[in-house]
Amino acid sequence: MSIPLNSFTVIKYHSDDIRIKRGEFNPKYYFKQYSIADGYKLAVCAEADDFPEEIEYVNLIDLYKKLSSYTFDDI
Q1: Residue 52 and residue 32: Cα distance in Å, rounded?
Q2: Are 25 and 37 in contact (CB under 8 A)?
Q3: What is the C-alpha separation between 24 and 47, in angstroms, rounded?
Q4: Sign of the dihedral defined by the CA atoms of residues 48, 54, 60, 63, in that order
């Protein structure tokens, strides 16, 4: 996330209508919630509504290899 957590409010009107209020500027964001284990949920937010159906679990070693292969030109 690129904005401070204390600079906006998340408002849930219905299960599929969640909005962000940020002063006068209220951009459109999309949310999705995943069940990751009994009693645990994961919520994600993005500017586009193109979430995968399931989350992909990645171990720390594979994540490190993936991240270390990037250069500043990739950013």
Answers
A1: 9
A2: no
A3: 18
A4: negative
Distance CA 36, CA 54 (A): 10
Which tens digit of pLDDT belongs to each residue from 7-36? 888 888 876 677 788 877 667 788 888 999
The span from the CA of 2 to the CA of 31, in Å, is: 16
Burial of 5 (0-12, 13-18, 19+ CB in 10 A): exposed
pTM: 0.58
